[in-house]
Specification:
One of its GO terms (biological process) is trehalose biosynthetic process. Belongs to the glycosyltransferase 20 family. It contains 16 helices and 16 strands. The chain is of the alpha/beta class. The strands form two sheets. A ten-stranded mixed sheet has the order 3-4-2-1-5-6-7-10-9-8, sandwiched between helices. The protein has a six-stranded parallel sheet with strand order 13-12-11-14-15-16, with helices on both faces. The two termini are 18 Å apart. The C terminus is likely disordered. The structure holds adenosine-5'-diphosphate-glucose. Adenosine-5'-diphosphate-glucose (ADQ) binds next to helix 13.
Length: 480
């Protein structure tokens, strides 16, 4: 069996069964343990000077290879082009795109440098799986270094409509670079369609739907395949964690403080794509329009800050602090705080238990590749007395979780109405919706996601020596 090489911006800090390990990290790590292989990426260290050195750690059949970044590389590759240009553009926030040509050069330089670090560690029959928007040029860089292995790519975030992608000045270079992979995986069909639309209408390429469900792409002198692979969770493990935490301190404290009131729960990284301001305002609208809900329900928003050194993230934090203060000032009473806004990270087990203790999961991103919180919320519920998921139509998860109350996060009244419906929903309807969603989550758990992608990647033909975009030679032959 070929070795699997996972390449991602950050290598997940896995301690087996440990609390920090998320479903994705565990899912990918499981695959590595099965096939044997390596996880390669940035260590998270930023060095002010010197020459970063790879640290290699063997844990059974899995090798972890990590390397630090120099400050300038971090600024241009990570803070700059990845998170100030690509992240907003891919989340349809062209208004927040900051583009600096030097950052793009840095992004390409770091991708090429990381690829060069990986090359000496590779074997001929390794299968390479690259993750996410930080590493779009990675396969192109490996091909330029003479690597002909199978290389797949999974994009965890949305792929934007062409008219939005055009706001990123080097859009063409990016899409051309993507075409150096053998298999591209997107979260949902709409993302795949957006990519195909760019290929046909902007790049002059062609797309063809194949019998095996994949799409064949011909563009920039390359032939590759693409498909949709909605990422999953391990629902039964999350349910176990949630059940185990039912009598734990966090849940007891929450219940004691609520005094029988209902609770609406949201958990997100503090990011402008998550729609927090709109969500706060819709909760305010609920209190405005349904005075009977006042002092009967609290909204808990857990949102640890991320990327705090970027201006757009400082801005969203200030806006949220202002909104929660304003709404609480307007409605709070001596014995009731409407919004609890908490800036911290919790262990997975605690989050799962809090999800189970809450009545409504309020997950309303303005755009999200998938949104695992929505899937974790459903997984954590008690099937006899489940909470209701209120879910944005712009989360990838909405394609699968049709038993949720699907809302448009730009429609404040619509969201307030959905909250009211969720809070009043009879138990039989809650059970039926939950049953449908749980069945879907079990059917497409994170192992299924990973195995589908690996199976499709193993089916594509290996690149022939000399076939590279740079050389502009033969398109890659694909085997069925
Ligand atoms: P994210 O944008 O990080 O992921 P999401 O899918 O919701 O978004 O995953 C967040 C993870 O972090 C969840 O597992 C959640 O439980 C955890 N988390 C969030 N807040 C936390 C807190 N306060 N304490 C502890 N844990 C917390 C990107 C894409 C998504 C895509 C995923 C996976 O943006 O669209 O679903 O990758 O592909």
């Amino acid at each position: 069996m070929s070795r699997l090489i996972i390449v991602s911006n950050r290598v997940a800090p896995i301690s087996e069964g440990g609390p920090a390990a998320g479903g994705l990290a565990v899912g990918v790590y499981d695959a590595l343990k099965e096939t044997g292989g390596m996880w390669f990426g940035w260590s998270g260290d930023v060095l002010s000077s010197g020459q970063p050195q790879i640290a290699v750690e063997e844990r059974g059949p899995v090798t972890f290879a990590t390397i630090g970044l120099l400050r300038r590389d971090y600024d241009q590759y990570y803070r700059g082009f990845s998170n100030a240009t690509l992240w907003p553009a891919f989340h349809y926030r062209a208004d927040l795109v900051q583009y600096d040509r030097h950052d793009f050069e840095g992004y390409r330089r770091v991708n090429a440098w990381l690829a060069q670090q990986l090359v000496p560690l590779l074997r001929d029959d390794d299968v390479i799986w690259v993750h996410d928007y930080h590493l779009i040029p990675f396969a192109q860089a490996l091909r330029a270094a003479g690597v002909h292995n199978r290389i797949g790519f999974f994009l965890h975030i949305p792929f934007p409509a062409s008219q939005v992608l055009l706001a990123v000045p080097p859009h063409r270079e990016l899409v051309e670079a993507l075409c150096s992979f053998d298999l591209l995986g997107f979260q949902t069909k709409p993302d795949l369609r957006a990519f195909c639309d760019y290929i046909v209408n902007e790049a002059g390429g062609s797309v063809e739907r194949l019998d095996d469900g994949l799409t064949r792409i011909d563009a920039f002198g390359q032939t590759l395949r693409a498909g949709d692979y909605p990422i999953g969770v391990y629902p039964d493990e999350i349910a176990e964690l949630a059940k185990a935490g039912e009598r734990g301190k966090p849940v007891r404290t929450l219940k004691a403080t609520l005094h029988g009131r209902k609770v609406i729960m949201s958990v997100d990284r503090l990011d402008y794509s998550k729609g927090l301001v709109e969500r706060f305002r819709a909760f305010e609208r609920l209190l405005d329009q349904a005075p009977s809900q006042r002092n009967r329900v609290s909204f808990v928003q857990i949102a640890p800050p991320t990327r705090a050194d970027l201006h757009a993230y400082q801005d969203i934090r200030l806006r949220l602090e202002a909104e929660s203060g304003r709404i609480n000032g307007r409605f709070a009473e001596l014995d009731w705080t409407p919004i609890w806004y908490i800036h911290r990270q919790y262990e997975r087990a605690v989050l799962a238990a809090l999800f189970r203790a809450s009545h409504v999961g309020y997950v309303t991103p303005l755009r999200d590749g998938m949104n695992l919180v929505a899937k974790e919320y459903v997984s954590a519920q008690d099937p006899d007395d489940p909470g209701v998921l209120v879910l944005s139509c712009f989360a990838g998860a909405a394609q699968e979780l049709t038993g949720a109350l699907i809302v448009n996060p730009f429609d404040t009244d619509g969201m307030a109405d959905a909250l009211a419906v969720a809070l009043a929903m009879p138990v039989a309807e809650r059970q039926a919706r939950h049953r449908d969603m749980l069945a879907q989550l079990r059917q497409n758990n994170v192992s299924v996601w990973r195995d589908r992608f690996m199976r499709d990647l193993s089916r594509v033909g290996k690149r022939e020596a000399g076939a590279s975009a740079a050389a502009g030679v033969v398109p890659m032959p694909l085997a069925d």
